[in-house]
Amino acid sequence: MVKTLAKYFAQVEGNEGYVPVEILFANADIYVVSVDGQEYTVDYTESSQGLHSFIINNVSYGVEINKNGYIFDVQRADDHFRVEILDEMKKFMKDRVTKGLQGRQVIDTQMPGLIVKILVEKGQEVSVGTPLMIMEAMKMENEIKSSKAGIVQDIFVKEGATVGTGDKLVIVDDIFSEEQANK
Predict the structure, then answer these.
(1) How far is Cα 11 from Cα 78, in angstroms, rounded to an integer?
(2) Residue range 150-175: average pLDDT?
């Protein structure tokens, strides 16, 4: 049985759920990595210009990676992926918070950008993960999604607005029936 050296959870933006990623072996620039149970041999090097070279199962990939906290923007030719990578403790804490989302949730910006399109209206019912708006940041369009199921209570921006880090975008609140509201 192979001992896991490190365990992470990765989620590619637009995909549901996290995929387990385990580092099973590491020696110099050679790694054996398990992604969702599938093993890969990876030869990894980083150049001084911020480019990263991966040889995965004898196929070469050159990518540019920009890190912002736990979010990695990966650019390869015309392909772009935004990936969130969490260790076991951060994943546990995030699950604890997101599974318990109750009450009013203020959704704000994580980086400066431009609001390209608003996809919902005040009073609209949304589910967890419903796209609320599209924001352009760092020359990429990003979907801002609802972190909970509920009703859009307020929208603080308009299409074409420039926003800064931490600016309020939307409030999503719980869905209450008339009976519950009158109790």
Answers:
(1) 20
(2) 91
